[in-house]
What does this fold into?
Amino acid sequence: MADRIGNTGRGKQKTVLVPDMGRLQPQARELEEAVLGALMLEKDAYSIVSEILKPECFYEKSHEMIYAAIVDLALNQRPVDMLTVMEQLKKRGELDQVGGPFYITQLTNKVASSAHIEYHARIIAQKYLARELIFFTAMIQGKAFDETIDVEDLMQEAEGKLFEISQRNLKKDVMQINSVIKDAIAMIQKAANQTEGLSGVRTGFDGLDKITSGWQNSDLIIIAARPAMGKTAFVLSMAKNMAVNFNTPVALFSLEMSNVQLVNRLIVNVCEIPGNKIKRGNLESYEWEQLDFKIKELYDAPIYVDDTPSLSVFELRTKARRLVREHGIRCLIIDYLQLMNASGMSFGSREQEVSTISHSLKGLAKELDIPIIALSQLNRGVESRQGIEGKRPQLADLRESGAIEQDADIVCFIHRPEYYKITEDERGNSLLGLAEIIIAKHRNGATGDVRLRFKSDFAKFMNIDEDIAVREFTSGMNVSQAETIPPIPPSSGVDFIQQGSSNEVPF
It folds into this structure.
C-alpha cells in the first residue's frame, strides 16, 4: 500500500510503496494537538520547542501548516496566539485546508496545561525520526532489488543519506559551566605535570610545539602547500616522531599512495638512505647494516595506515571510530583532503562538497576528541606573485573552498624558498635547506613562523638543534664515512642547510 512516511519540506509529502504489514506509521496525533494548542496559549512556549521541532516533524498535514504559520510569526517577532495564527494562515491561503477557525479553536480548548510541552515535543520529534528511517530503509530496499544499480554505489548512497539524517537530528544539550570548569582545570593540571608544559599531542618539532602546546584534542589542523613542497614528508616525519619518539598511536589515511609506498618513505626517513637507492635496492654493505639497525625503530610502532583510494568522509568516520576504540588512536592524519569525497549526497558544485567534507572532519574531531590533521592543496595564486614575500602562502590561497579556513582551528603552510630559486634573503643570508612552517591561523593561540631543516634526499623535516647534533657526530668521520656537509650559516634567524639536490622533488 502507498503510505506517507516523511516530508521533503513545507507542504511537500513523500510517498513510498511499502509492504502492508498492518502497521500505522509512527505518529502522535494527540500530542501534536496538545503542543499546537499550548503554543497558541503560552507566550514563551515557542522558545522551548523551536530547537526541537520543524514543520515537517508533524505527521498530520494540517498540523504541519499550522506550525509553519507559528514559525513565520515567531521569526517576524510577532505575537503567537489563536487570532494571529488564523490571520497568518489566511495570508498563506491555508486556513480552510487546516479546518478553518473552528479547528484552531478546538486545539486551544484541548490544552489542560503547557507544563510538559518540551517532553511532548521530543516525542513528536522521535516519531518523525522513526518515519524518516522507515522511508530511508524502504528506499534502499527498493533499490537493492534493482539489478541495474551497482551495489557499491548503493552502499555509498545509503551511508550518505543515513549521515544526513543523523546530522539533521543531532542535538546536544547545554551544560552548566561548573562541569566544564572542572575539565578545563584538569587540562591545565595535565599540562603542568608535563616537563615541557605541553597539553596536547607532541609533534617532535620544538618550535611548533611551543606555539601550539601540541596538537589539541578536538582541533582540525589544515597543513597546506603547493605541490613538491613536502606535505607528505612533513606529516611522515611528524608521525614518526609521535609514534617512535613518544609512543603516541597515530593513524594515517593515504588517498594517493599505497601502504607499501608509504612505508618505503618512512624507511627512507628513519634510516636516512636515499629514496632512489631504496627503490632500486642498490645499497652498499654499510647501508644494508644501517637499514637493519635503524628499521628496528619502526617495528611495533603504533602507526596504522590505510590506503583506501577515493575515501569518503562516511567511510572515514566508521574507520576512525574503530581505530580510537580498538587501538587508542590519539591523532589522525589525512593525505589529502581534496582527494576525499562525500558520495551518496548531491551537491551543486565541488566547492559545496569540499565544504561538507571540511565540516564533517571538524565534527569528527570533536566527536572523537582527538586532533585531526588534513593536508590540503593551494591554488596557483602563489606562482603568479613575485619576490620573497610574494611566494609566501596566504589563507586566500586555500583551494576549492573558504569553508576549509573557517572550519580549521589551525592552518599551517609549508614554504621552502629555494623551490622558487630564492637562495638568499634580503640580508644575504642563505636560504638553502630552509623549511618554514607558517602558522597563518590559530583559533586558540598565537600565529607565527617555525623554522626547520629539510633533507630532500631523505624526505625528512627536523629541528635545527637535531641537525647540529648530527653534524657534530659526523665531524669526526673522514670523507669516505660521511658526505660533505656545508657549513652552518651565520645565526641570522635563517640558518638552514641544504641536504641533497635542491631540484629533487620531495616526498
